[in-house]
Amino acid sequence: MGQYRQLLVLLTEVNPHSAALRRALALAHANGANVHVLGLFEPVEEHLLREECLSEADIKRQFEQYHKQLAGLIERHRHSGVTLTHDSLNADDIRSQAIDYISELQPDLVIKNSESAPAMARLFGTPLDFALMRGCKGMMHFVPSAAVSLPQRILIAVDTSFREAPSAQERFNRGLVRAAQALALQCGAQLHLLSAYDLSGVFASDMSVTEAWIDEMRNALQEPFQALADAEGVAPDCRHFVEGSPVQVIREQVCALDIDVVVMGVVQPRGLAKLLGDTTERIVSHPPCSVLTVHPHVVDTWEP
Questions:
Q1: pTM for the predicted model, two decimal places
Q2: CA-CA distance, 200 to 213, in Å (whole number)?
Q3: What is the pLDDT of residues 161-195, one digit of tens each?
Q4: Where are the beta strands (DSSP E) in the chain?
Q5: What is the CATH number of the domain that holds 10?
Q6: 59: containing domain
């Protein structure tokens, strides 16, 4: 998780004002990385009756036009001082093909424009950002349209709640910190560490007993958080141990601290969480800022 050498930008639309491309070019200027742009083409069925389908000739024509527009966009940045290449992907299953493409290329970072996903869309389908985040065993960086070129403040959201394998959880938290440090290295950003805890379900008939339990559980959660912050050299005024639901706390802290990027882990959702989305997916679906997601595979294969 050191300096970036290969950045991959995913574009579903050829937009000259793409925030993802702007972020990639800024990072490349900062550290000399190469930038490869992959256009994800999907045919558009405009002005067709419901019973009609696009012919192969229509799809080919649209793809050729898309590839031409993408080439024109790349040409505009050809003399920017960045090594810039591009490719277009036209496939029946664009999601799985994109994941395979990323797996073969193995970039240091995949950057994509953020796409908001309403709750109903998440309930009845898997948004593209979610599919990529789950399927790509690396780091995905989602950038909203209003994002600055280079982030200056990065927030790392770690989880110190009780787990069956605390050592694995500790290793994953440290991996999130290292991923954030790698990004901060490229742009000189300041790091903040956040852990949100929710003890609203703790209750006993005796209020004094409840308060004692809450204090004990809070201390048990805060101890590994402070140990992580100490080990990674996080300044005391950049440590945030906050009570509340994780999604709400993250959004509030992003606003309060004027955060440019929040770093979060990818957790494979199961059961009801798969329908409603875990904390990371809920943030990605309506991002308050740029989001850097880290797959557990990155941490598992990382060597200090």
A1: 0.89
A2: 12
A3: 766 677 888 888 999 999 999 999 999 999 999 99
A4: 6-11, 34-41, 84-90, 109-113, 139-143, 153-158, 190-197, 239-243, 261-265, 290-294
A5: 3.40.50.620
A6: 1-113
